[in-house]
Design goal:
Elements (H helix, E strand, L loop, with lengths): L13 H4 L24 E4 L5 E3 L6 H9 L3 E4 L5 E3 L4 E2 L6 H12 L26 H18 L20 H9 L6 E5 L37 H6 L2 H10 L8 H11 L3 E6 L5 H4 L7 E3 L2 E8 L5 E2 L1 H9 L13 E5 L8 H10 L5 E5 L21 E5 L8 H5 L16 E5 L2 H12 L2 H9 L3
Parallel strand pairs: 6-7, 6-12, 7-8, 12-13, 13-14
Antiparallel strand pairs: 1-2, 1-3, 3-4, 4-5, 9-10, 9-11
Length: 454
């Protein structure tokens, strides 16, 4: 289950702190902090392009803001953007130029062949209130469009010539025919919170029932604060209270989880990349080596102070006894290794997707809003000839018109003339899974797996 939401979209300080015309020709993401020479966790100021270390090192980035009032900075670690005035991660399309310079330096500039995460967002990016402002987003689009026209001198990217569809048809029948043909031998599944709703675990954004709409009892400054590492360090009690409700063992896998295991047993699963921390994939007996838990899980724990490995069972016992789990070495808090706002994704995520996604011959995206980056960006890193299928309650991850203007092919192309590989199967996720396995002749196989735990 993903604990990140959209960063703030309407930062009023960006225009005062960042001018795209002042960008240097390149930005080195390995530059040391100018004060202490740290190279491990640095930020670059977008006003003067000075490099300073984070609060988790010696805090020179924050000191720079206090001294210069330069409010906006970008992290070298994950390319997230922070505004000190807003006290929030922020997002704006006019930042794309500077972020691209940093991506080019960090990952190499051949984005068509190097499977690297290209994103202006970050998996640990909290917004000010957890919801985007639709009107502000429209205004951002207009401002970004005008800026694009200026930067490109009114020249739009040439329209891409039409391509032959990679499926017999871009619909359910086309997907079934493709899998039955035996062409899908290295399937990658990207899964999100929608996978576990049928297990009784709430997702995060559904109005009324989503987790962020039901945290009032914890008396939080914002709904997302419960998963913010800075808030956790000073006020850990709300997280542990919530963790007691969400802890693994309270829920059972859904048919969709067993479908992933079925793909493995059929010998066609390359990997399952999950945003969920509920470990229901493990409970469904998807082998550990087939899983990449992008946002961590309750399966391991670490002291937030000295980084010592924590005893998972000890943490669980403390949580259910309403006690704070403390480290024996330093008395720091021991936190389950789920990714909070302000923390980097596990190294396994980055190591694995670079290897897996170039090999993927069918991408299944299940139960996710694709609003959390860098996870959401993964859909753009399968080969161009690979079919991409969204199995979800509603549309998600659609291409951005502004990026298409620039020739950047990012996101699903549902409904566009250029679409040659993207399929959307919308509706109840579990119903869609049963319909798919029935059409494939796998229904009895899935029923046996589900029956194992009844």
């Amino acid at each position: 289950m993903a604990y990140a939401v959209e960063p703030r979209l309407n930062c009023p300080h960006l225009s005062k702190n960042f001018n795209a015309e002042t960008l240097p020709a390149s930005i080195s993401v390995t530059a040391p902090c100018r004060h202490c020479d740290n190279i491990g966790e640095n930020w670059i100021c977008l006003s003067c392009f000075q490099v300073n270390c984070s609060r988790h090192v010696k805090g020179h980035a924050a000191e720079h803001f206090e001294a210069k009032k330069h409010a906006v900075a970008v992290s070298f670690s994950d390319l997230s953007v922070w505004c000190y005035e807003c006290d929030s991660y922020i997002k704006h399309r006019t930042l794309e130029g500077v972020l691209q310079l940093m991506r080019d330096n960090k990952f190499g500039n051949d984005s068509s062949s190097d499977a690297t995460v290209a994103s202006s967002d970050n998996a640990t990016s909290p917004s000010d209130d957890g919801t985007p402002d639709d009107n502000t987003d429209d205004e951002d689009d207009g401002a970004a469009a005008r800026m694009i026209e200026q930067l490109t001198l009114g020249q739009r990217a040439p329209e891409r010539p039409p391509r032959e569809p990679v499926l017999p048809s871009l619909d359910f029948d086309g997907l079934v025919a493709h899998i039955k043909s035996g062409k899908a031998k290295k399937i990658v599944v990207m899964s999100g919170a929608g996978m576990s709703v049928a297990a009784g675990i709430p997702d995060f954004r559904t109005p009324g029932t989503g987790l962020y709409d039901n945290l009032q009892k914890y008396n939080l400054p914002t709904p997302t604060a419960v998963f913010d590492i800075s808030f956790f360090r000073t006020t850990p009690e709300p997280f542990y209270m919530l963790a007691k409700e969400l802890y693994p063992g309270n829920f059972k896998p859904t048919p969709a989880h067993y479908f992933i295991r079925l793909l493995h047993e059929k010998g066609v699963l390359l990997r399952n990349y999950t945003q969920n921390i509920d470990t229901l994939e493990r409970v469904a007996k998807v082998p550990a080596e087939m899983l990449v838990e992008a946002h961590g899980s309750f399966g391991t724990a670490t002291c937030v102070s000295c980084k010592a490995e924590g005893d998972v069972e000890f943490v669980r016992e403390c949580v259910f006894a309403d006690k704070l789990p403390r480290c024996e070495k330093c008395d720091g808090l021991i936190k389950p290794d789920i990714v909070f706002f302000g923390e980097s994704l596990p190294s396994r995520f980055f190591d694995s997707f670079r290897e897996d996604f170039p090999k993927c011959d069918l991408l299944l995206v299940m139960g996710t809003s694709l609003k959390v980056h860098p996870f959401a960006s993964l859909i753009d890193y399968v080969p161009e000839h690979t079919p991409r299928v969204l199995i979800n309650r509603e549309m998600a991850g659609q291409a951005n018109a502004l990026m298409l203007m620039l020739g950047r092919q990012e996101g699903f192309e549902f409904g566009l003339k250029s679409n040659y590989r993207d399929v959307a199967l919308l509706g109840d996720l579990q119903d869609s899974v049963w319909k798919l396995v029935d059409a494939l002749g796998w229904k009895e196989d899935l029923e046996k797996l589900v029956a194992e735990d009844i």
